[in-house]
């Protein structure tokens, strides 16, 4: 039985390799901040450069700040270039995420946890479906995210949610409706980003406190690309559902090279994966069956 199952996996992998050609994600086009986004809070802590092509979020002991997309989206490719807070960033968190607006909300999160000078950032990702999260994964990055801009993106369609760093998949959350797991598909989401103080938990579990003598802490942004199906908050489906590039076959699964890269990230950079946390989850969450095949 077990070997039969493995054989099937092997065969379908073979098919996958032969059937899927590398499908590059559509190249994002940089636009000014104001095209797709607006400030959410502490407006005076957002600074604009080059006519809004580049912005900075400032965090000091009085407040952090944040912004959000003007539109709501159901599926698409969402992309941002960010340069994280340099130097001593311990205690700070820079977040970039999608979230729906209701009670049983869906959410797709990137959270960058700062650190002492020279110590590595952690990238934490999470997925909420129908109000339920607790699906944290944590990795170190293979570069210093404070030294230059890097791109952070989400590909979201009916089949999968892919987290990408510089176009390398670092996580995939497959639609596991067949396993009884909710998948975000009928609640439009806005994009959000913010920089705030979280020294009660962020760095080494709250041991490292934010050093306010180093303020302001500054995260820089550019790109501001959004390629999604815009929908009203109440919409249950997108008007062009199934017809956009991200809905097409080559984006319904990772291709062979993307799987290889994801495995590389997994092997080399994983710090924590809720799927393998038997203390927290004595029995494995169902969607992790898909995670394990990686
Ligand atoms: C910060 O650096 C320490 C020491 O290298 C490390 O244990 C920790 O995982 C790093 N990141 C965070 C966010 O705490």
UniProtKB/TrEMBL annotation:
Compartment list: Secreted, Cell wall; Secreted, Extracellular space, Apoplast
UniProt keyword Flavoprotein, yes or no: no
EC number: 2.4.1.207
Glycosylation sites: 115
GO molecular function: hydrolase activity, hydrolyzing O-glycosyl compounds; xyloglucan:xyloglucosyl transferase activity
GO cellular component assignments: apoplast
PTM entry text: Contains at least one intrachain disulfide bond essential for its enzymatic activity.
Domain GH16: 24-221
Active site residues per record: 107 (nucleophile), 111 (proton donor)
CDD domains with a match to the protein in the record: GH16_XET
Signal peptide: 1-22
PROSITE patterns: GH16_1 (PS01034), GH16_2 (PS51762)
Single GO BP term: cell wall biogenesis
Function: Catalyzes xyloglucan endohydrolysis (XEH) and/or endotransglycosylation (XET). Cleaves and religates xyloglucan polymers, an essential constituent of the primary cell wall, and thereby participates in cell wall construction of growing tissues.
Name of this chain's protein: Xyloglucan endotransglucosylase/hydrolase
Gene: XET1
């Amino acid at each position: 039985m077990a070997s039969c199952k493995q054989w099937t996996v092997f065969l379908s992998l073979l098919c996958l390799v032969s059937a899927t050609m590398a499908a590059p994600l559509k190249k994002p086009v940089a636009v000014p901040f104001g095209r797709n986004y607006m400030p959410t809070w502490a407006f005076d802590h957002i600074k604009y450069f080059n006519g809004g092509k580049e912005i900075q979020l400032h965090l000091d002991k009085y407040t952090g700040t944040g912004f959000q997309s003007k539109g709501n989206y159901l599926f698409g490719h969402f992309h941002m270039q960010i340069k994280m807070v340099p130097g001593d960033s311990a205690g700070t968190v820079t977040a970039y995420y999608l979230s729906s607006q209701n009670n049983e909300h869906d959410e797709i999160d990137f959270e960058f946890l700062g650190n002492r000078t020279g110590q590595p950032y952690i990238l934490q990702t999470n997925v909420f479906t129908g109000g339920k999260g607790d699906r944290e994964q944590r990795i170190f990055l293979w570069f210093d995210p404070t030294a230059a801009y890097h791109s952070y993106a989400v590909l979201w369609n009916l089949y999968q949610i892919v987290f990408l760093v510089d176009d390398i998949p670092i996580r995939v959350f497959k639609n596991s409706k067949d396993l009884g797991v909710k998948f975000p598909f009928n609640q439009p989401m806005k994009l959000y980003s913010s920089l705030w103080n979280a020294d009660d938990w962020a760095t080494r579990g709250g041991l490292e406190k934010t050093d306010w003598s180093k303020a302001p802490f500054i995260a820089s942004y550019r790109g501001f690309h959004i390629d999604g199906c815009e929908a009203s908050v109440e919409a249950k489906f997108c008007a062009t559902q199934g017809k956009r590039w991200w809905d097409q076959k080559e984006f319904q699964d990772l291709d062979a090279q993307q799987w290889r890269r994801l495995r590389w990230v997994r092997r080399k950079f994983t710090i924590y994966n809720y799927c393998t946390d038997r203390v927290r989850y004595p029995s494995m969450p169902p969607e992790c069956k898909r995670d394990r095949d990686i």
